[in-house]
Write a structure and sequence with these properties.
Keywords: Carbohydrate metabolism, Lyase. GO terms for molecular function: 2-dehydro-3-deoxy-6-phosphogalactonate aldolase activity. Pathway: Carbohydrate acid metabolism. By secondary structure, the chain is α/β, with parallel strands linked by helices. The protein is built from nine helices and nine strands. The protein has helices at about 1-10, 20-35, 45-55, 70-80, 95-100, 115-120, 130-145, 165-170, 190-205, and strands at about 10-15, 35-40, 65, 85, 105, 110, 125-130, 155, 175. The model has no long low-confidence stretch (mean pLDDT about 95).
Length: about 210
Amino acid sequence: MFKEAMKKCRLIAILRGVRPDEVEAIGRAIYDAGFRIIEVPLNSPEPLESIRILRSTLPADCVVGAGTVMSPAQVQQVADAGGQLIVMPHSDPAVIRAATDAGLASAPGVATVTEAFAALAAGADILKMFPAEQLGPAVVKAWRAVVPASVVLAPVGGITPDSLQTFMQAGATAFGLGSALYKPGMSPQEVGANAKAFIHALRACETA
């Protein structure tokens, strides 16, 4: 399911700070723009309720998950809420294994090649290169010399429509999008416009 969603759109929407009373409309705007993976960080207001709402209202081909997952216990809470993806700021193998055992995809955060290969050994589905602002395209390119092409490298942190091309040319294959896509207080219309801008930039890179 996660791999199919990634094939349709390699952009992951990060809705940090979203509230349950607004998440359906925002999620729908993002989905309608072309996104197929949406993440609600667990440090958002009532995140598990937002995950339940997204999972029950968006089409089945949209993967809904949680971000800022720090423990195996939280993995189970996300699974119970209907989540399908575990995104982490770190690469704790216990959390990665808990996600795999629960039948959920995992995207651990890594900042070194050592962490990257340890996460893959633990069963990670994709690698979240975090923070992207610090690592930059040069590090992505260097990692690609040793990380197999089949492994998805997804920079997260400070990604904008204008920076997609540089990162993709360096070897990035997916992206997590935060404040340039959604910030608390934005209307569904604003988020939808941002989502369309990212989709347009991605398609332009793919056809360049």
